[in-house]
Amino acid sequence: MSEGNDDQINLADASSADVSSAAGMKGLNASSALLIAANLIPLVGVFVWGWSIFNVVILYWAENVIIGGINILKMITCAPDPSKMDLRGKLDKRIIDKLGEDSEEDIRKAFELTHKLEANKGKLGMLHHASKLFFIPFFTFHYGLFCLVHGVFVVALLGKNELGGDLMPSGGSSFGEFGHLVTLALEAGGLWAVLALVVSHLFSYFSNYLGKGEYRRTIVPVIMMAPYGRIVVLHLAVLLGAFATMVLGSPVYLLVILIVGKIMLDLKFHQRAHRKILARKQTSDHSE
Predict the structure, then answer these.
(1) 251 with 49: CB under 8 angstroms?
(2) How far apart are alpha carbons 104 and 111 in whole angstroms?
(3) Residue 73, burial from CB neighbour count under 10 angstroms (0-12, 13-18, 19+)
């Protein structure tokens, strides 16, 4: 093996170690560890399959589509248990947090509203399931449009250089060109990376959302908004990395920095989301 290849392998090993150390491997659960493993595949793509910045960014775009599909599953299966929502506990916590800021009249109205909500939990459950008829189609359209625009932007920014001499025939549509680029990325090993991300997100869905009862402690509007903060930050990070690599010619070390930075952001959002759900569970258990 050549000295250059040795340097690349050492760089990949060091990058993996940095991610594991920064994430705190000892405290990782199975879904977090699987998330890291799936996100390390782009490093294989860079060092083994010769991936460019386009291959990496289009994979992250595909992950956003995967996240949207999983989120629709979450909205469909969401079935909040009124006994797990702990409305009175949330009100008590708000009063303590806002001590002196709310008037006695505001507190009285809040208690009256909480009492009414708790007395009509059965009806609220039916209304919640009925609301899915609006929220799920709305999310599918809005999030789908968001991903479509981002995908077009990725192709316009990076796709032309990727196609090179393998340009679409004259008269080909933009959608045809986009599909051709995605096919090229999948054939370059991207299919394995996509499958790994699907497995990772599905594992988290079954293990955390269903297995740990998260679907009983949240509501559809909250789930609908959950992916947006995460993907906006990831999009900005990915696009900044893309601009940097375009200027500097896609050196390997910049692709590694982009991949490692994305893994750390991904893990942070993943753990923070599940910590919030766990906190709700602990509050509910304590109130019981």
Answers:
(1) no
(2) 11
(3) middle
| Number of residues that this document lists for the chain | 288
Q: Quote the CA–CA distance of 91 and 82 in Å, as a whole number.
A: 15
Which pLDDT score, from 0 to 100, does residue 203 have?
94
pLDDT tens across 206-254, in order? 998 999 888 888 888 889 998 887 777 767 766 776 677 667 766 788 7
pLDDT-flagged residues of the chain (< 70): 1-27, 82-125, 160-176, 234, 237-238, 241-242, 245-246, 249-250, 274-288
Q: How many domains does the chain have?
A: 1
Helix 174-185 vs helix 53-77: crossing angle, to nearest 10: 100
In angstroms, rounded to a whole number, what is the distance separating the alpha carbons of residues 186 and 235?
21
Give ∠ CA 148-221-119 in degrees, rounded to 5. Answer: 170
Rg of the chain, C-alpha, whole Å: 23
Cα angle 103, 107, 110 (rounded to 5 degrees) comes to: 140
Burial per residue of 24-46, b for 16 or more beta-carbon CB atoms within 10 angstroms, e otherwise: eeeebeebbebbbebbbbbbebb
Please give the residue range of the domain that contains residue 283.
3-287
